[in-house]
Amino acid sequence: MKRIMSRSFVILIVSLAMVAGICLLAFRLLTQNEQWVAQAYNGHVASSNGLAQAGDITDRDDVTLAYTDDNEERIYHEDYSTRCALMHLVGDNSFNISTSVQSMYRSELTGYSFVFGLGLPKSLRTNNSIDLTVDADACKAAYEALGNKKGACVVYNYKTGEVLVDVSTPTYDPQYPPEITEDNESEYDGVYLDNVVSSSYTPGSIFKVVTAAAAIENIPDIYNRTFECTSSYDIDGANITCEYAHGTLDFTQAVAQSCNVACAQMAVEVGAEKMTETAEKMGFNKTFEVSGITLSKSVYSLENALGDNQLGWSGIGQFEDLANPMHMAMMCGAIANGGTPVTPYLLDSDSSILHKMGVIEAKTSEQMLSPDTAAKVQDIMRATADYYYNARGLTMGGLNFGAKTGTAEVGEGKEPTAWIIGFTEDENHPYAFAVAVEEGGYGISAAAPIAQAAISSLVNNP
Amino acid sequence: MGFQVFLDIAVVALRFMLPLYAVVIVYQCFASMRRHRRPEKPLVTLEIKNTLQQIPVLFWENSIGRSKGSDICVEDPTVSRDHCVLLRRQEGWMISDIGSKGGTYVNGKRARGRTQVLIDDEITVGSTTFVLKRGDEFQDRIRPSWFFSKASNKGSLQPYKLMLLISFFHLFMAVEASFTNEVQDFTPFVIFGVLEAIVWTFFFVSTFAFKRINFELEALACFMTGIGALILYRKEPRMSYVQLIAAVIGIVLFCVIVKIIENPDRVDSWRMAIMIGAVGLLAINLIFGTVQNGAQNWIQIGPVSVQPSEFVKVAYIFVGAAALDKLQTKRNFFEFIVFSAICVGALALMGDFGTALIFFVTFLLIAFMRSGDFKTVLLALVAVVFAGTIVLKFKSYVLNRFAAWGHVWEYSDNLAYQQARVLTYTASGGLSGVGIGNGYMKYIFASESDIIFGMLSEEMGVIVSFALVLAIVMLAFYARAITTRSRSTFYSISACCAAGLMVVQTSLNVFGATDILPLTGVTFPFISAGGSSMIACWGLLAFIKAADERTYAARRLSKHQEDR
Predict the structure, then answer these.
(1) Which residue ranges does chain A devote to CATH 3.40.710.10?
(2) Which of B53, B203, B236, B425 is the most buried (most CB within 10 A)?
(3) CA distance A69 to A89
(4) pLDDT at B232 exceeding the cut of 50
(5) What residues have CB less than 8 Å from A345, skipping those under 6 apart?
(6) Which ipTM value was assigned to this complex?
(7) Which of residues 13-52 of A touch B (CB under 8 A)?
(8) pTM (2 decimals)?
(9) At what angle do helices A272-281 and A260-270 cross, to 10 degrees?
(10) Which of A7, A32, A115 has its CB closest to that of B368?
């Protein structure tokens, strides 16, 4: 009997294995229940593809962007352009845009809770509304300015972190989603990506902001230097070229006039190690999160660089460099905010009441630049705007601003990617912005007007 | 509108009460099991004649020998490692030699087969002689198993009160099932009425006709049977009726098995007949069986379809266990191995992977619990052959299941269709469920059997479904705790292995459905739809019931109480 008793511990082992399994199941249930519930086939929320019980989505001025009517039909904003402009942010009835609010926050919208599940009777159900920080009018303005170009436009308040404009194209009308067939495939190529958060483009000249910061920190007499530009300069056996000869330039002029020859020389002088260090400090090769959305990485990597020539190209935003629009806006936010960016957010509920009342500081990310360097880079960008862009008729709602455009070569037979990044300097309108336009051409002519449209709208329709 | 809100609040309150209520019932079942205790003292004592040293005899079956694992260990080089077995039967104490070198003597006469020993008789093994004495003369207290030792001293809940609690739970379920979102009618009360008639009849027969004082095991099974019958009603009323009919047959089988194995020696003479019967069933299945869902494990008899492998489970436990002095005989042992081989072989031919796996694990459990030293190697060998057979036979099938395992969301519309639904609806149910009949799980294929865990969780909440799973675990703890209090190793082994089988089956059911293990398609004991499964579960429960020594001592106990 004793022997049988001692051998019967195998039953205990089997039972304990089962208890362990149950614990694992409970753990998964606790941590993944929202994902489990948010399935399109879920019968409890099946009509409108799971949005039958979903609450309203509104913009910063309480304009309703999406709601569910009495027939359990999901209705989006009445204006076609506004619907298209906000499609990537708000989402549609499908789960195709994984970073949209209706995909990511579906369980919050439908009032799902782990305790009550989805089984509460209709009278007791509390679906949750979500207030977004964006301005629908400004988004519409940006969308219309983008026209039929593919690209991204983001504007955020670098003092509070509220994202005001978040527009990505190509897009479609969420109320009447198109049928995507072989014939119109190219028109909708990449339509399910929110380019603001999920894409990274070759930065081109906007990267000179990073090179300038690296030069300020690593070349002690940089402000006493002059650079000679004859439109072509040999580094390591191959040429770095400018469109025309800039002549003799000091440091600020070199960056403001976007001289490739000068900036490539700066990058080579700073060296691969220090360039990488500065770029990474400013957020390249890093993962950021905005309201739960993981941003596509910006990349600065010299691993495949063969010599100083490619190091030079990397310093002017070519080679293998990549930049994400939201990150670029954050970087400009950091420059205008003393070196440390306020983390952007999309959902109004992400900021606490105390924060709204100004009692506590907004949430900040890691420092990107020292306050001293930030001030110097800010001066350069302001100078660029004052002496160069203003002359070309670029304004930002009449505010003082700093900016840098970019025209990034992306290969044979393709128009360059047009960029503008920058910030406004105004107590009431502290905006950081980034615009990228695929195959747009020159930054100043293709990207800048979009930023101008978005910010004018924000300033003029408060 | 105001009234509607009031009504809805009441419904939600009821829904939240039920899970807590279920936890209380499961707790009470086991609390009652733990509180039943007999006085912890030796049954008899053995006195060594020369030294007058007293050895307590604690169990109904005791091995005597030189090896350390013996219940009565004799440090005498002339005694064999496993010398003989001292056992208690209806007729009194017996001694049975189990192939010792020197033989066993009672009052100087060599014992052949089982020989009766009376108080003050002398038992001689090797050069040691014991005298059998009464147990009262031994004073030291004996430490009981933790399962019983930490029970509170409060009086246990009387069986009829426990049954009342359970009936009220079923009543609440019937109310919920009557007022679903889609249909409102009182037909579930028919199921409730029949169910209560069955379980209360069973209770009264057990208490007054059989005079059994304890009913917790049966109560737990009734509780689960009722939950199954009531939750299935809104999926398919016919299933509920099948469950109830099967429950009646199951309860009868339960009583019959408890009766058959009342005398552990009678079991020995039945073993061959049961083996032949089980093999016959499997043979009929193989010849006349019909294929359903890829496995040929059904026999169609008129309008009734039966799954013979379920009944073979009961036979398997029956054949696998034996009394202590029979346990070590080679004949008994080889019979078991041959029978195991036939069972797993037949299931492999049928293509019933889930059941084959259950048999395989149960085989390991039984083999481990009964194997002596020299046989372990042989058993391990057989185990390897079995495993090989299963893997070869089910290779493509298993690979398919493994492909979906852990990739539910990638294959949520094909390979892992069912698992994805289980997870989604489990989470949708929340803690208290969406209410009986309000779920969407019931529209999914096999939601009444293989993936019933999803339906339970969705409609009754995860608290209830987890409590039911834990109830099965507790059953295994209970079966183990009563091992040494059983009247024979036959009961200890069969109880542990029957409980082990249920644990394995429940694990495969729950974890298969929730993607913790690959889906195998077995039933949840007592709850899943399926007559054969229900009957087999009651049959298995009989072994656990029989292991409790009070099951057969009831009459004597009640007389004892009257005397007081």
Answers:
(1) 139-460
(2) B425
(3) 21
(4) yes
(5) A133, A161, A162, A163, A290, A291, A351, A363
(6) 0.91
(7) 14-15, 17-19, 21-22, 24-26, 28-29, 32-37, 39, 41-44
(8) 0.74
(9) 100
(10) A7
